[in-house]
Amino acid sequence: MSFRTSGLHHVTAIGGDPQRNADFYVRTLGLRLVKTTVNFDDPGTYHLYYGDESGRPGTLLTFFPWKDAPSGRIGTGQATTTAFSVPERSLGWWRDHLAAQGVEASDVVTRDNEETLTFRDPDGLVLALVAHPQGDPRDPWDTPLVPGEHAVRGLHSVTLSVSREDATVGTLTEDLGLSFAEEDGNRFRFNAGEGGPGAMVDVLVTPDAPRGLVAAGTVHHVAWRAPDEQTQVDWRSELVDRGVSVTSIMDRQYFRSIYFREPGGTLLEIATDQPGFSIDEPLLELGKALKLPPWLEPNREQIEAALPKLDLPSENNPAGA
């Protein structure tokens, strides 16, 4: 493959009540809601983007939250764990913080020389906080509830659960340009570039697990980074030439996207790093207002009437912003 991703761009999941979703990810997890918009393919629901201060690629977890969405089933053919990077020696603080917020977390376990704490969001989405021994230089979003010294630095990795690994591994290495890093029993790690937080994926082989069902509490797709639009155009052409069934390029306003499904069942995306989230509102005001793309703006009144009320937690924006 001529093209190699530099790492994760974002993970998109299905949520339930949007207010509960925002309260959890802004207040409990300490992320910033960097964009309040709608699902461009179904504008009757929000699309909420959480990340660092500016929503840089590699920090983002996004949601399509439907208030009455049925619960999904976690299983093969999905990304089953979304992990975030936190500083070393922070997991004790996080365990106490999550307990104070009424969130039950696992004991801290060590795997691949990394300490990991696992828990679920209010809809059952499996999340993990991982302290990478070499650290993570990315700047945190600092809030009164989650101070910068302990705060999330960005995505750490995702885990893809499959019934067999061969075809999925082929997609990761041949279509995304990842490289095999290590094996731990039925878990295989792959790196983008040199690896490290935000540039890793684990393939977990669970042949006896049920097939996953995408609904509330599950991941919808995993997006990987492309540096610019021309790279994405050329990358898509090469995928098509290789026989991959890939979508046309879609304008997501804050990046451009193509989608294809790996043989194990997980929907993958290649998304451009640009133009980013500050193209339609100032950095200090990210997330505060409902933003619509130009082609949906004429329908703003109807769209706003169909969406449930969403009160953005005060931690999301600096005082006076």
TrEMBL record:
Leader sequence segment: none
PROSITE patterns named in the record: VOC (PS51819)
Highest taxon of the lineage: Bacteria
A Pfam family matched in the record: Glyoxalase
Gene3D superfamilies documented for this protein: 2,3-Dihydroxybiphenyl 1,2-Dioxygenase, domain 1
Annotated PANTHER family: RING-CLEAVING DIOXYGENASE MHQE-RELATED (PTHR36110:SF2)
Protein name in the entry: Glyoxalase family protein
